[in-house]
Amino acid sequence: MIVGAGPTGLTVGNFLGRMGLSVLLIERNLMTVQEPRAVSIDDESMRTMQAIGLHEVVRGIVASGSGSHYLSPSGRTFLTVEPTSQVYGFNQRNAFQQPELEQVLRDGLTRYPNVQQFFGWEFDGLGQDENYARGTIRKTETGETRQVAGRYLVASDGGRSPIRTSLGIEMKGSTFAERWLIIDLFKTDNRFRHTQVYCDPARPCLALPRPAGIRRYEFMLFPGEDERTVTDHGFVRSLLARVGPDADGEFRRIAVYTFHARLAERWRSGRVFLAGDAAHLTPPFAGQGMNSGLRDAHNLAWKLAEAVRGSVSNEFLDSYMAERGPHAWDMIKLALRMGTVIMPRNRFKAWLIRSAFQILKVYPAARDYFGQMKYKLKPRLRAGLIWPDGCKERRSVVGELMPQPIVEDIDGKRSLLDERLEDGPAVIVYDAFPDRALSSESLSALREAGVQVIGITPEWNNVVLANFPVYRDASGLLSHSGFKCYLGSALLLRRDRYIAGVTPAGEADKLMPWVHLLRASPSPLGATPALEPHQLALK
Protein backbone atom coordinates (compact mmCIF):
# COMPACT_ATOMS: atom_id res chain seq x y z
CA MET A 1 0.00 0.00 0.00
CA ILE A 2 1.09 3.56 -0.70
CA VAL A 3 -0.49 6.45 1.20
CA GLY A 4 0.03 9.81 -0.46
CA ALA A 5 0.12 10.46 -4.22
CA GLY A 6 2.66 13.25 -4.52
CA PRO A 7 5.74 12.79 -6.73
CA THR A 8 7.30 10.29 -4.30
CA GLY A 9 4.24 8.09 -3.86
CA LEU A 10 3.38 8.16 -7.56
CA THR A 11 6.95 7.18 -8.44
CA VAL A 12 6.94 4.30 -5.96
CA GLY A 13 3.64 3.19 -7.52
CA ASN A 14 5.13 3.24 -11.01
CA PHE A 15 8.13 1.22 -9.87
CA LEU A 16 6.09 -1.43 -8.08
CA GLY A 17 3.55 -1.59 -10.88
CA ARG A 18 6.37 -2.09 -13.38
CA MET A 19 7.80 -4.82 -11.15
CA GLY A 20 4.51 -6.72 -11.25
CA LEU A 21 3.32 -6.20 -7.69
CA SER A 22 -0.28 -5.54 -6.70
CA VAL A 23 -0.41 -1.99 -5.42
CA LEU A 24 -3.05 0.03 -3.60
CA LEU A 25 -2.46 3.81 -3.92
CA ILE A 26 -4.48 5.93 -1.49
CA GLU A 27 -4.75 9.72 -1.75
CA ARG A 28 -7.16 11.87 0.25
CA ASN A 29 -7.46 14.49 -2.50
CA LEU A 30 -9.63 13.86 -5.54
CA MET A 31 -6.78 14.53 -7.96
CA THR A 32 -3.07 15.21 -8.11
CA VAL A 33 -1.82 18.62 -7.02
CA GLN A 34 -3.02 21.50 -9.19
CA GLU A 35 -0.93 24.31 -7.71
CA PRO A 36 2.75 25.00 -8.47
CA ARG A 37 5.16 23.63 -5.89
CA ALA A 38 8.54 22.09 -6.77
CA VAL A 39 10.19 23.72 -9.79
CA SER A 40 13.44 21.82 -10.48
CA ILE A 41 14.12 18.20 -11.41
CA ASP A 42 17.75 17.08 -11.51
CA ASP A 43 19.70 14.52 -13.52
CA GLU A 44 19.35 11.77 -10.93
CA SER A 45 15.58 12.20 -10.91
CA MET A 46 15.44 12.21 -14.70
CA ARG A 47 17.30 8.89 -14.56
CA THR A 48 14.62 7.68 -12.14
CA MET A 49 12.00 8.71 -14.71
CA GLN A 50 13.99 6.67 -17.23
CA ALA A 51 13.84 3.65 -14.92
CA ILE A 52 10.02 3.78 -14.89
CA GLY A 53 9.83 4.37 -18.65
CA LEU A 54 8.58 7.97 -18.52
CA HIS A 55 11.68 10.04 -19.25
CA GLU A 56 10.71 10.87 -22.82
CA VAL A 57 7.31 12.14 -21.69
CA VAL A 58 8.89 14.15 -18.87
CA ARG A 59 11.40 15.64 -21.32
CA GLY A 60 8.42 17.13 -23.13
CA ILE A 61 7.32 19.13 -20.07
CA VAL A 62 10.68 20.44 -18.81
CA ALA A 63 13.01 23.25 -19.81
CA SER A 64 16.36 21.45 -19.83
CA GLY A 65 19.74 22.75 -18.81
CA SER A 66 18.84 25.75 -16.67
CA GLY A 67 21.43 27.43 -14.45
CA SER A 68 21.63 30.14 -11.78
CA HIS A 69 23.10 33.64 -11.74
CA TYR A 70 23.84 35.19 -8.34
CA LEU A 71 23.43 38.96 -8.27
CA SER A 72 24.66 41.70 -5.94
CA PRO A 73 22.27 44.37 -4.59
CA SER A 74 23.27 46.53 -7.57
CA GLY A 75 22.27 43.77 -9.99
CA ARG A 76 25.79 42.72 -10.96
CA THR A 77 26.44 38.99 -11.46
CA PHE A 78 29.15 37.71 -9.13
CA LEU A 79 28.62 33.94 -9.58
CA THR A 80 27.40 31.97 -12.60
CA VAL A 81 26.32 28.35 -12.27
CA GLU A 82 25.60 26.72 -15.64
CA PRO A 83 26.49 23.01 -15.48
CA THR A 84 27.03 21.25 -18.81
CA SER A 85 28.12 17.73 -17.84
CA GLN A 86 25.68 14.81 -18.14
CA VAL A 87 27.29 12.16 -15.96
CA TYR A 88 23.99 10.37 -15.41
CA GLY A 89 22.70 10.84 -18.94
CA PHE A 90 20.69 14.04 -18.41
CA ASN A 91 21.15 17.74 -17.68
CA GLN A 92 21.82 18.48 -14.05
CA ARG A 93 19.06 21.09 -13.75
CA ASN A 94 15.70 21.15 -15.49
CA ALA A 95 12.76 23.47 -14.80
CA PHE A 96 9.27 22.01 -14.67
CA GLN A 97 5.78 22.45 -13.23
CA GLN A 98 4.79 19.98 -10.54
CA PRO A 99 1.13 19.62 -11.62
CA GLU A 100 2.28 18.49 -15.07
CA LEU A 101 4.81 16.02 -13.64
CA GLU A 102 2.28 14.51 -11.25
CA GLN A 103 -0.20 14.06 -14.08
CA VAL A 104 2.46 12.26 -16.15
CA LEU A 105 3.20 9.98 -13.20
CA ARG A 106 -0.48 9.27 -12.56
CA ASP A 107 -1.10 8.56 -16.23
CA GLY A 108 1.87 6.20 -16.08
CA LEU A 109 0.07 4.09 -13.49
CA THR A 110 -2.65 3.28 -16.00
CA ARG A 111 -0.13 1.00 -17.75
CA TYR A 112 -0.49 -1.46 -14.87
CA PRO A 113 -3.78 -3.21 -14.13
CA ASN A 114 -2.16 -4.41 -10.90
CA VAL A 115 -2.19 -0.82 -9.52
CA GLN A 116 -5.45 0.35 -7.97
CA GLN A 117 -5.88 4.10 -7.43
CA PHE A 118 -8.08 5.38 -4.61
CA PHE A 119 -8.14 9.16 -4.97
CA GLY A 120 -10.57 10.91 -2.64
CA TRP A 121 -10.06 8.32 0.12
CA GLU A 122 -8.43 9.01 3.49
CA PHE A 123 -6.35 6.41 5.33
CA ASP A 124 -6.74 5.89 9.09
CA GLY A 125 -6.41 3.33 11.85
CA LEU A 126 -2.98 1.96 11.03
CA GLY A 127 -2.23 -1.44 12.46
CA GLN A 128 0.21 -4.20 11.61
CA ASP A 129 1.09 -7.77 12.47
CA GLU A 130 3.83 -10.16 11.43
CA ASN A 131 2.44 -10.47 7.91
CA TYR A 132 0.52 -7.32 6.95
CA ALA A 133 0.02 -3.61 7.52
CA ARG A 134 -3.69 -2.78 7.83
CA GLY A 135 -5.99 0.18 8.05
CA THR A 136 -9.30 1.75 7.09
CA ILE A 137 -9.93 4.02 4.14
CA ARG A 138 -12.87 6.42 4.07
CA LYS A 139 -14.28 8.05 0.97
CA THR A 140 -14.35 11.77 1.67
CA GLU A 141 -17.45 12.48 -0.43
CA THR A 142 -19.75 9.75 0.93
CA GLY A 143 -18.19 8.47 4.16
CA GLU A 144 -18.02 4.92 2.76
CA THR A 145 -15.32 2.85 4.48
CA ARG A 146 -13.29 -0.20 3.52
CA GLN A 147 -10.72 -2.29 5.32
CA VAL A 148 -7.39 -2.61 3.51
CA ALA A 149 -4.19 -4.55 4.02
CA GLY A 150 -0.85 -4.95 2.32
CA ARG A 151 2.43 -6.70 2.93
CA TYR A 152 4.07 -3.28 3.34
CA LEU A 153 2.94 0.34 3.55
CA VAL A 154 4.82 3.34 2.15
CA ALA A 155 3.88 6.57 3.92
CA SER A 156 4.52 9.36 1.43
CA ASP A 157 1.84 11.52 3.01
CA GLY A 158 3.74 14.79 3.32
CA GLY A 159 5.65 16.87 5.82
CA ARG A 160 2.85 16.67 8.40
CA SER A 161 2.50 12.91 7.81
CA PRO A 162 -0.40 11.57 9.92
CA ILE A 163 1.13 8.10 9.65
CA ARG A 164 4.49 9.28 10.99
CA THR A 165 2.67 11.04 13.82
CA SER A 166 0.62 7.94 14.67
CA LEU A 167 3.84 5.93 14.91
CA GLY A 168 5.36 8.46 17.33
CA ILE A 169 8.34 9.15 15.06
CA GLU A 170 9.89 12.55 15.71
CA MET A 171 11.51 14.91 13.24
CA LYS A 172 15.04 15.87 14.23
CA GLY A 173 17.37 18.50 12.88
CA SER A 174 18.26 22.17 12.95
CA THR A 175 15.98 24.90 14.20
CA PHE A 176 16.06 26.52 10.76
CA ALA A 177 12.65 27.93 9.85
CA GLU A 178 12.30 30.73 7.32
CA ARG A 179 9.16 32.26 5.83
CA TRP A 180 9.16 33.09 2.15
CA LEU A 181 6.58 34.76 -0.04
CA ILE A 182 5.91 32.65 -3.16
CA ILE A 183 4.50 34.37 -6.27
CA ASP A 184 3.62 32.36 -9.36
CA LEU A 185 2.75 34.27 -12.53
CA PHE A 186 0.81 33.06 -15.56
CA LYS A 187 3.37 34.66 -17.87
CA THR A 188 6.53 36.71 -17.61
CA ASP A 189 8.15 39.57 -19.47
CA ASN A 190 11.53 38.48 -18.11
CA ARG A 191 13.07 36.41 -20.92
CA PHE A 192 16.21 35.37 -19.01
CA ARG A 193 16.37 31.57 -19.14
CA HIS A 194 18.33 30.98 -15.92
CA THR A 195 17.38 31.46 -12.29
CA GLN A 196 18.31 34.87 -10.91
CA VAL A 197 19.32 34.94 -7.25
CA TYR A 198 19.22 38.43 -5.72
CA CYS A 199 21.57 38.23 -2.72
CA ASP A 200 20.36 41.49 -1.23
CA PRO A 201 20.13 41.64 2.58
CA ALA A 202 17.39 44.26 2.18
CA ARG A 203 15.16 41.57 0.60
CA PRO A 204 16.66 38.30 -0.73
CA CYS A 205 14.82 37.05 -3.79
CA LEU A 206 14.85 34.25 -6.36
CA ALA A 207 13.36 34.61 -9.84
CA LEU A 208 12.85 31.14 -11.30
CA PRO A 209 11.97 30.59 -14.98
CA ARG A 210 9.49 27.83 -15.75
CA PRO A 211 8.44 26.10 -18.97
CA ALA A 212 5.96 27.79 -21.32
CA GLY A 213 7.14 31.33 -20.53
CA ILE A 214 6.02 31.58 -16.92
CA ARG A 215 7.99 32.51 -13.80
CA ARG A 216 8.06 32.16 -10.03
CA TYR A 217 9.39 34.75 -7.59
CA GLU A 218 10.35 33.98 -4.01
CA PHE A 219 11.00 36.77 -1.50
CA MET A 220 12.32 36.25 2.01
CA LEU A 221 10.11 37.60 4.78
CA PHE A 222 11.42 39.15 7.96
CA PRO A 223 10.27 38.52 11.54
CA GLY A 224 7.17 40.51 12.38
CA GLU A 225 5.90 40.88 8.81
CA ASP A 226 2.21 40.07 8.78
CA GLU A 227 0.97 37.47 6.28
CA ARG A 228 -2.06 39.53 5.30
CA THR A 229 0.15 42.55 4.59
CA VAL A 230 2.77 40.71 2.53
CA THR A 231 0.15 38.96 0.36
CA ASP A 232 -1.63 42.22 -0.47
CA HIS A 233 -1.44 42.74 -4.24
CA GLY A 234 -0.06 46.24 -3.91
CA PHE A 235 2.77 45.06 -1.64
CA VAL A 236 3.53 42.13 -3.95
CA ARG A 237 3.73 44.38 -7.00
CA SER A 238 6.10 46.71 -5.17
CA LEU A 239 8.43 43.76 -4.55
CA LEU A 240 8.26 42.60 -8.16
CA ALA A 241 9.08 46.11 -9.39
CA ARG A 242 12.45 45.88 -7.61
CA VAL A 243 13.66 42.82 -9.54
CA GLY A 244 12.50 43.10 -13.12
CA PRO A 245 9.70 43.77 -15.60
CA ASP A 246 6.91 41.66 -14.04
CA ALA A 247 5.33 44.14 -11.64
CA ASP A 248 2.09 44.09 -13.65
CA GLY A 249 2.02 40.31 -14.17
CA GLU A 250 -1.13 38.24 -13.68
CA PHE A 251 -0.97 36.25 -10.45
CA ARG A 252 -1.54 32.51 -10.49
CA ARG A 253 -0.78 32.05 -6.80
CA ILE A 254 0.46 34.06 -3.85
CA ALA A 255 1.34 32.12 -0.72
CA VAL A 256 3.59 32.19 2.34
CA TYR A 257 5.69 29.07 2.94
CA THR A 258 7.78 28.18 5.97
CA PHE A 259 10.87 26.15 5.13
CA HIS A 260 12.33 23.63 7.59
CA ALA A 261 15.42 21.44 7.84
CA ARG A 262 14.34 18.19 9.47
CA LEU A 263 15.00 14.46 9.29
CA ALA A 264 12.78 11.74 10.75
CA GLU A 265 14.58 9.80 13.48
CA ARG A 266 13.38 6.51 11.97
CA TRP A 267 12.23 5.77 8.42
CA ARG A 268 10.90 2.31 9.19
CA SER A 269 8.50 0.96 11.79
CA GLY A 270 7.85 -2.72 11.17
CA ARG A 271 6.06 -2.94 7.82
CA VAL A 272 5.73 0.83 7.42
CA PHE A 273 8.30 2.98 5.59
CA LEU A 274 8.45 6.78 5.43
CA ALA A 275 9.40 8.44 2.14
CA GLY A 276 9.65 11.95 0.72
CA ASP A 277 8.60 14.86 2.94
CA ALA A 278 7.33 12.41 5.55
CA ALA A 279 10.98 11.40 6.08
CA HIS A 280 12.83 14.70 5.50
CA LEU A 281 12.12 18.40 5.03
CA THR A 282 14.59 20.41 2.99
CA PRO A 283 14.91 24.17 2.42
CA PRO A 284 14.50 24.95 -1.29
CA PHE A 285 17.79 26.70 -1.97
CA ALA A 286 19.47 23.64 -3.52
CA GLY A 287 16.34 22.49 -5.34
CA GLN A 288 16.57 19.08 -3.67
CA GLY A 289 13.30 18.61 -1.74
CA MET A 290 11.32 16.68 -4.35
CA ASN A 291 14.47 15.17 -5.83
CA SER A 292 15.37 13.64 -2.47
CA GLY A 293 11.93 12.04 -2.39
CA LEU A 294 12.44 10.52 -5.83
CA ARG A 295 15.75 9.07 -4.63
CA ASP A 296 13.82 7.50 -1.75
CA ALA A 297 11.39 5.97 -4.23
CA HIS A 298 14.11 4.36 -6.34
CA ASN A 299 16.00 3.03 -3.33
CA LEU A 300 12.95 1.62 -1.54
CA ALA A 301 10.87 0.18 -4.38
CA TRP A 302 13.21 -2.60 -5.50
CA LYS A 303 13.82 -3.66 -1.89
CA LEU A 304 10.09 -3.94 -1.24
CA ALA A 305 9.72 -5.92 -4.47
CA GLU A 306 12.35 -8.39 -3.29
CA ALA A 307 10.76 -8.58 0.18
CA VAL A 308 7.33 -9.34 -1.27
CA ARG A 309 8.61 -12.01 -3.64
CA GLY A 310 10.65 -13.88 -1.06
CA SER A 311 12.39 -13.74 2.28
CA VAL A 312 14.81 -10.95 3.20
CA SER A 313 16.49 -10.01 6.44
CA ASN A 314 15.70 -7.04 8.64
CA GLU A 315 19.10 -5.68 7.67
CA PHE A 316 18.05 -5.78 4.02
CA LEU A 317 15.02 -3.57 4.74
CA ASP A 318 16.84 -1.38 7.26
CA SER A 319 19.39 -0.58 4.56
CA TYR A 320 16.81 1.89 3.16
CA MET A 321 17.45 4.51 5.85
CA ALA A 322 21.08 3.47 6.32
CA GLU A 323 21.66 4.35 2.66
CA ARG A 324 19.29 7.25 2.15
CA GLY A 325 19.36 9.03 5.49
CA PRO A 326 22.96 10.37 5.35
CA HIS A 327 22.58 11.63 1.79
CA ALA A 328 19.23 13.28 2.56
CA TRP A 329 20.88 15.10 5.45
CA ASP A 330 23.81 16.08 3.21
CA MET A 331 21.31 17.71 0.83
CA ILE A 332 19.68 19.55 3.73
CA LYS A 333 23.09 20.86 4.83
CA LEU A 334 23.88 21.89 1.25
CA ALA A 335 20.64 23.87 1.11
CA LEU A 336 21.50 25.57 4.40
CA ARG A 337 24.96 26.52 3.11
CA MET A 338 23.47 27.92 -0.07
CA GLY A 339 21.02 29.84 2.09
CA THR A 340 23.90 31.73 3.67
CA VAL A 341 24.85 33.01 0.19
CA ILE A 342 21.28 33.85 -0.78
CA MET A 343 20.35 35.41 2.57
CA PRO A 344 23.27 37.52 3.84
CA ARG A 345 22.22 39.10 7.13
CA ASN A 346 23.83 42.49 6.49
CA ARG A 347 25.67 44.40 3.77
CA PHE A 348 29.11 43.64 5.21
CA LYS A 349 28.53 39.87 5.08
CA ALA A 350 27.08 40.22 1.60
CA TRP A 351 30.21 42.08 0.50
CA LEU A 352 32.49 39.42 2.04
CA ILE A 353 30.62 36.64 0.18
CA ARG A 354 30.80 38.47 -3.14
CA SER A 355 34.47 39.29 -2.66
CA ALA A 356 35.28 35.64 -1.91
CA PHE A 357 33.60 34.48 -5.10
CA GLN A 358 35.36 37.18 -7.14
CA ILE A 359 38.72 35.93 -5.84
CA LEU A 360 37.84 32.29 -6.50
CA LYS A 361 36.90 33.09 -10.11
CA VAL A 362 40.60 33.73 -10.80
CA TYR A 363 41.33 30.02 -10.27
CA PRO A 364 39.99 27.72 -13.02
CA ALA A 365 39.50 24.75 -10.67
CA ALA A 366 37.49 26.88 -8.23
CA ARG A 367 35.51 28.48 -11.05
CA ASP A 368 34.71 25.04 -12.44
CA TYR A 369 33.78 23.75 -8.98
CA PHE A 370 30.97 26.28 -8.68
CA GLY A 371 30.07 26.78 -12.32
CA GLN A 372 29.67 23.03 -12.94
CA MET A 373 27.83 22.42 -9.65
CA LYS A 374 30.55 20.15 -8.30
CA TYR A 375 29.65 21.38 -4.84
CA LYS A 376 26.54 19.19 -5.07
CA LEU A 377 27.66 15.90 -3.55
CA LYS A 378 27.38 12.92 -5.84
CA PRO A 379 25.10 10.24 -4.45
CA ARG A 380 27.17 7.73 -2.51
CA LEU A 381 26.23 4.90 -0.18
CA ARG A 382 28.47 4.52 2.85
CA ALA A 383 26.56 1.65 4.46
CA GLY A 384 23.91 -0.87 3.53
CA LEU A 385 23.96 -3.30 0.62
CA ILE A 386 27.47 -2.55 -0.64
CA TRP A 387 30.82 -4.29 -0.28
CA PRO A 388 33.79 -1.86 -0.34
CA ASP A 389 36.83 -2.84 -2.37
CA GLY A 390 39.41 -1.65 0.15
CA CYS A 391 40.23 1.61 -1.66
CA LYS A 392 39.86 4.96 0.05
CA GLU A 393 36.39 6.40 -0.46
CA ARG A 394 37.52 9.24 -2.71
CA ARG A 395 39.19 6.70 -5.03
CA SER A 396 36.58 3.93 -4.87
CA VAL A 397 33.50 3.65 -7.06
CA VAL A 398 31.77 1.19 -4.71
CA GLY A 399 28.66 2.87 -3.35
CA GLU A 400 28.47 5.35 -6.21
CA LEU A 401 25.64 5.68 -8.69
CA MET A 402 26.94 4.22 -11.94
CA PRO A 403 27.57 6.92 -14.55
CA GLN A 404 25.44 6.57 -17.66
CA PRO A 405 27.53 6.89 -20.80
CA ILE A 406 26.29 6.74 -24.35
CA VAL A 407 27.15 3.25 -25.53
CA GLU A 408 27.45 1.89 -29.08
CA ASP A 409 26.81 -1.67 -30.19
CA ILE A 410 28.52 -3.62 -32.96
CA ASP A 411 26.01 -2.26 -35.51
CA GLY A 412 26.80 1.34 -34.56
CA LYS A 413 23.50 1.92 -32.74
CA ARG A 414 23.86 4.29 -29.83
CA SER A 415 21.83 4.62 -26.66
CA LEU A 416 22.14 5.49 -23.00
CA LEU A 417 23.54 2.65 -20.90
CA ASP A 418 20.37 2.00 -18.88
CA GLU A 419 18.45 1.29 -22.07
CA ARG A 420 20.65 -1.80 -22.45
CA LEU A 421 20.11 -2.97 -18.87
CA GLU A 422 17.28 -5.11 -17.57
CA ASP A 423 15.50 -4.58 -14.24
CA GLY A 424 17.73 -6.68 -12.04
CA PRO A 425 21.31 -7.06 -10.85
CA ALA A 426 23.87 -6.65 -13.60
CA VAL A 427 27.59 -7.17 -13.97
CA ILE A 428 29.51 -4.80 -16.22
CA VAL A 429 32.85 -6.07 -17.45
CA TYR A 430 34.83 -2.90 -18.13
CA ASP A 431 37.85 -3.93 -20.14
CA ALA A 432 39.59 -3.34 -23.44
CA PHE A 433 38.64 -6.94 -24.33
CA PRO A 434 35.63 -7.91 -22.15
CA ASP A 435 35.07 -11.11 -24.14
CA ARG A 436 38.55 -12.31 -23.17
CA ALA A 437 38.53 -11.03 -19.59
CA LEU A 438 35.48 -12.96 -18.38
CA SER A 439 35.71 -16.73 -18.18
CA SER A 440 32.91 -18.92 -19.52
CA GLU A 441 32.55 -20.43 -16.02
CA SER A 442 31.96 -17.01 -14.44
CA LEU A 443 29.54 -16.08 -17.21
CA SER A 444 27.51 -19.26 -16.68
CA ALA A 445 27.42 -18.83 -12.89
CA LEU A 446 26.24 -15.24 -13.13
CA ARG A 447 23.57 -16.05 -15.69
CA GLU A 448 22.30 -18.97 -13.61
CA ALA A 449 21.91 -16.55 -10.69
CA GLY A 450 19.72 -14.29 -12.84
CA VAL A 451 22.37 -11.63 -13.39
CA GLN A 452 22.64 -9.79 -16.70
CA VAL A 453 26.21 -9.57 -18.00
CA ILE A 454 27.41 -6.94 -20.46
CA GLY A 455 30.81 -5.67 -21.50
CA ILE A 456 31.89 -2.06 -22.00
CA THR A 457 35.09 -1.10 -23.79
CA PRO A 458 36.81 2.29 -23.69
CA GLU A 459 35.84 4.76 -26.38
CA TRP A 460 39.02 4.05 -28.34
CA ASN A 461 38.29 0.34 -28.76
CA ASN A 462 36.17 -1.40 -31.40
CA VAL A 463 33.26 -3.65 -30.45
CA VAL A 464 33.46 -7.33 -31.38
CA LEU A 465 31.02 -10.23 -31.34
CA ALA A 466 31.08 -12.12 -28.04
CA ASN A 467 28.95 -14.61 -26.12
CA PHE A 468 27.49 -11.70 -24.16
CA PRO A 469 26.62 -8.16 -25.32
CA VAL A 470 29.59 -5.79 -25.57
CA TYR A 471 29.32 -2.04 -26.11
CA ARG A 472 31.74 0.81 -26.71
CA ASP A 473 31.72 3.84 -24.40
CA ALA A 474 31.05 6.20 -27.29
CA SER A 475 30.87 9.25 -25.01
CA GLY A 476 34.23 8.57 -23.36
CA LEU A 477 32.57 9.23 -20.02
CA LEU A 478 34.15 6.34 -18.14
CA SER A 479 37.65 6.96 -19.47
CA HIS A 480 37.58 10.57 -18.33
CA SER A 481 36.26 9.93 -14.83
CA GLY A 482 37.25 7.96 -11.76
CA PHE A 483 36.54 4.76 -13.70
CA LYS A 484 39.75 4.98 -15.67
CA CYS A 485 41.62 3.04 -12.99
CA TYR A 486 38.88 0.36 -12.98
CA LEU A 487 39.70 -0.82 -16.49
CA GLY A 488 39.94 -4.61 -16.23
CA SER A 489 37.22 -4.86 -13.56
CA ALA A 490 33.82 -6.45 -13.14
CA LEU A 491 31.30 -4.14 -11.47
CA LEU A 492 28.16 -5.44 -9.77
CA LEU A 493 25.18 -3.09 -10.20
CA ARG A 494 22.06 -3.21 -8.05
CA ARG A 495 18.59 -2.74 -9.49
CA ASP A 496 18.83 0.98 -8.73
CA ARG A 497 22.17 1.22 -10.63
CA TYR A 498 24.36 1.75 -7.57
CA ILE A 499 27.68 -0.11 -7.64
CA ALA A 500 27.53 -2.80 -4.94
CA GLY A 501 30.96 -4.35 -5.44
CA VAL A 502 33.98 -4.68 -7.72
CA THR A 503 36.42 -7.48 -8.53
CA PRO A 504 39.05 -8.01 -11.22
CA ALA A 505 37.28 -9.14 -14.38
CA GLY A 506 39.05 -12.51 -14.28
CA GLU A 507 37.65 -13.13 -10.78
CA ALA A 508 34.04 -12.17 -11.44
CA ASP A 509 32.84 -15.38 -9.77
CA LYS A 510 33.79 -13.73 -6.46
CA LEU A 511 30.77 -11.47 -6.93
CA MET A 512 28.39 -14.40 -6.47
CA PRO A 513 27.97 -14.16 -2.65
CA TRP A 514 27.05 -10.48 -3.03
CA VAL A 515 24.63 -11.27 -5.83
CA HIS A 516 22.75 -13.62 -3.50
CA LEU A 517 22.56 -10.91 -0.84
CA LEU A 518 20.83 -8.60 -3.33
CA ARG A 519 18.10 -11.15 -4.06
CA ALA A 520 15.33 -12.53 -1.87
CA SER A 521 15.47 -16.19 -0.92
CA PRO A 522 12.36 -18.32 -1.44
CA SER A 523 9.69 -17.47 1.13
CA PRO A 524 7.29 -19.81 2.92
CA LEU A 525 4.59 -17.31 2.00
CA GLY A 526 5.00 -18.40 -1.60
CA ALA A 527 6.19 -16.75 -4.77
CA THR A 528 3.12 -14.63 -5.53
CA PRO A 529 4.07 -11.05 -6.38
CA ALA A 530 1.75 -9.51 -3.81
CA LEU A 531 -1.77 -9.62 -2.45
CA GLU A 532 -4.48 -10.42 -4.91
CA PRO A 533 -6.33 -7.11 -5.27
CA HIS A 534 -9.78 -8.50 -4.56
CA GLN A 535 -8.76 -10.71 -1.68
CA LEU A 536 -6.70 -9.03 1.03
CA ALA A 537 -5.95 -5.66 -0.57
CA LEU A 538 -9.65 -4.78 -0.24
CA LYS A 539 -11.81 -6.66 2.18
Shape call: globular
Named at the architecture level, the CATH assignment of the largest domain is 3-Layer(bba) Sandwich
Q: Which stretches are poorly predicted, pLDDT < 50 over at least 5 residues?
A: 525-539
Q: What is the strand tally?
A: 27
Biggest sheet details = 8 strands, mixed
**CATH homologous superfamily designation of the largest domain:** FAD/NAD(P)-binding domain
CATH class of the largest domain: Alpha Beta
Question: Descriptors for this entry?
Answer:
539 residues, alpha+beta, FAD/NAD(P)-binding domain, Glutaredoxin, 2 domains, eight-stranded mixed sheet, seven-stranded mixed sheet, 27 strands, globular, disordered C terminus
Description of the molecule:
The radius of gyration is 24 Å and the shape is globular. The protein is an alpha+beta fold and 539 residues long. The chain has 2 domains: 2-328, FAD/NAD(P)-binding domain (3-Layer(bba) Sandwich); 406-517, Glutaredoxin. Helices cover 27% and strands 26% of the residues. It has 14 helices and 27 strands. Helix 1 (7-18) runs parallel beside helix 4, helix 1 (7-18) runs parallel beside helix 8 (289-309) and helix 8 packs antiparallel against helix 9 (314-342). It has an 8-stranded mixed β-sheet with strand order 6-5-14-15-16-13-17-20, sandwiched between helices. Mean pLDDT is 91; it is low at 525-539.
